[in-house]
Amino acid sequence: MKELVISTQNKGKIAEFKQMLGEKGLEVKSLLDYPTIPDIIEDGKTFSENATKKAETLAQQLNCIVIADDSGLVVDALDGRPGVYSARYAGEAKNDNANMEKVLRELVDVPSEDRTARFVCVIAVARPNKTTLVFEGACEGVIARERRGTNGFGYDPIFYVPELEKTMAQLTSEQKNERSHRANALKKLFATQGEWS
User: Fold this and answer.
1) Among 151, 189, 185, residue whose Cα is nearest residue 47
2) Could you identify which of 38, 68, 86, 136 might form a hypothetical disulfide with 54, taking C-beta atoms 3.0 to 4.6 angstroms apart as the criterion?
3) 68 CB-contact burial (10 Å; exposed 0-12 / middle 13-18 / buried 19+)
4) Is 70 labeled as catalytic in the residue annotation?
5) Highest CATH level, class, for 2-196
6) Cα–Cα distance for residue pair 85/62, rounded to 1 Å
7) Mapping DSSP to helix (H, G, I), strand (E, B) and coil, where does residue 30 land?
8) Secondary structure of residue 115 in the 3-state scheme
9) Cβ neighbours of 82 (radius 10 Å)
């Protein structure tokens, strides 16, 4: 079985990647399996820059295929914020509750029709001595006025999917993995699996 490493310590992301990549016959490890590797500073101005930096840095250190993603919430009424700062939008502590509260507070007077948003995910596949491949996926939605649901992580409880009449946090893992921004990026990656795996 082909082994690769996911450049993240986020348990929610790891679970999603393991489920979707495992179905393709890939054995997945993560940074949790390499606790001595120092954090890679995400100082890029775009999702693509951050994902590429994480993937290439770790691939050089481990000499293996590494998949890294950078993802976040893009809200139209907030001029694209929180964007690349999604994980730390309310501060450096990476607090999901504080991040959601900040978004809801900033949108409190914004009417429903103007609360459009999308989750964006950019996945980079780095391989030793080869060109890094980059794939982008998105999932369109609306920012709800209150949290709903307990499944998922991050901004899922306030990201409402109109056609399903549910937030991402109200979907089952299977439903989320069919339509999420990460799933859509992975579908593009899988379409080229023979080129990198």
Assistant:
1) 185
2) 68
3) buried
4) yes
5) alpha beta
6) 27
7) strand
8) coil
9) 20
Instruction: Choose the catalytic residue: 43, 70, 109, 114.
Output: 70
Distant-in-sequence, close-in-space partners of 116: CB < 8 Å, separation ≥ 6: 75, 76, 77, 140, 141, 142
Identify the residue whose tokens are 């993603």.
69
Distance of CA 81 to the CA centre of its chain: 15
| Tens digit of pLDDT at every position of the chain (197 positions) | 578 899 998 888 888 888 888 888 888 899 999 999 988 888 999 999 999 999 999 999 999 999 999 999 999 999 999 999 999 999 877 899 999 999 999 999 999 999 999 999 999 999 988 999 999 999 999 999 999 999 988 999 999 999 999 999 999 988 888 889 988 998 898 888 666 66
Please give the model's pTM, rounded to 2 decimal places: 0.88
Query: Which residue has 């999917």 as its token pair?
Result: 161
Label the pairing between strands 116-126 and 133-143: antiparallel
Cβ within 8 Å of residue 83, ≥6 positions away: 47, 72, 73, 74
Residue 125 tokens, joined: 């596949």
**Do you know the residue count of the chain?**
197
